[in-house]
Amino acid sequence: MSEISNMRTVTCHDCGKPVSLSARACPVCGSREPAGPVRIGHRAPRKIGIERLNDRNLAVTSLALGLLGACYGFATNTGVMSAIFFTALYGFIGVAIGVPIGFASNLIRH
Ligand SMILES: [Zn+2]
Fold this sequence. Notes:
It is a single chain. This protein has helices at about 1-5, 45-75, 80-110; strands at about 10, 20. By secondary structure, the protein is mainly alpha-helical. Strands 1-2 form a two-stranded antiparallel sheet. β1 and β2 form a beta hairpin. α2 runs antiparallel to α3 (about 80-110). About 15% of the residues are buried.
């Protein structure tokens, strides 16, 4: 009994049983990483996946609105100089609006 408690053990992250630190796999549940993944926690992969999705969502939203603004700026102006100016302006406004919208949808998803 004391022998076991004196051993350097970790709690198996899959089944919660103590496993020797030197064990390659948990003898109880057969987990390949009884000490748990060193790099990231148990729920981390999922969270990272969501954040990646959010980043893409944010980029797509701001890009779409920026493009929409650019098209609007381009379509509503006849002169070349003003078309360029308003394309840039509305494009910027679209991105400026798209970023908070992307953020808001990220917050809702959480
Ligand atoms: Zn286990």
